Amino acid sequence: MKIKIHKEGYPVIILMFFLLLTIVALINILFPFQTPIHLFLYLAGLIFYFFVIRFFRDPIRIVIPDNNIILSGADGKVVVIEEVIEKEYFKDKRKQVSVFMSATNVHVNWFPVGGTVTYFRHNHGSYFIASKPKSSDENERTSIVINTPKNKEILFRQIAGTVARRIVCYAKENKTVEQGDELGIIKFGSRFDLFLPLDSKIEVKMGQKVIGNRTVIAKLT
Prior knowledge:
By secondary structure, the protein is α+β, with helices and mostly antiparallel strands. It folds into two domains: about 1-60; about 65-220, Glucose Permease (Domain IIA) (Distorted Sandwich). Helices cover about 20% and strands about 40% of the residues. The protein has three helices and 16 strands. The chain has helices at about 10-30, 35-55, 135-140; strands spanning about 1-5, 55-60, 70, 75-85, 90-100, 110, 115-125, 140-145, 155-160, 165-170, 175, 180-185, 190-195, 200, 210, 215-220. The strands form four sheets. Strands 11-7-8-9-13-5-4-15 form an eight-stranded antiparallel β-sheet. A three-stranded antiparallel β-sheet has the order 3-16-14, with no helix packed on it. The chain has a three-stranded antiparallel β-sheet with strand order 6-12-10, with no helix packed on it. A hairpin with a 5-residue loop joins strand 8 and strand 9. Helix 1 packs antiparallel against helix 2 (about 35-55). The longest helix has 21 residues, at about 10-30.
């Protein structure tokens, strides 16, 4: 599997490089005599910078589209599988499956199904811990609905968490997308919700680790 750096990460990576370089220069100007503390700070800076770069990794995962399945749109762990009333778009019962992305997961998101984007909204909100149920309705989020070739409407959301402050989403209404296309990225953020028809067959379990564009979340009937 090939991995590249996501284009949204370059401004942050460059900014952090010059910020760390400035801090190192100031330390050496104020305290020019090198001590073990200096070495510790250099090492801490390198480790921090490594994790900043790692956060924006963008794995290349080739998908063979299948209109009968719903793929995971994110890397992470399944934290919700339940029937809920979806209040924003459907306003009826749906099966919800939610994937929580920790700080160590890839934070790029992909379209879990192909079809036509029939609905897109960016909703401003709070920044509760993304693993909590209320984050789906109250947090900063984007909501996207895809009408699949099987004429099934699938809603999914990118949800910000306590650390995340920016969601990047490339979806646009009336845009035709393929399953596995890049949806966007949540910068330092952390949850992906799916709202599925009630007759969908869920293929994952609570607590299961999933991989975006690899793990089958559900099958459509």
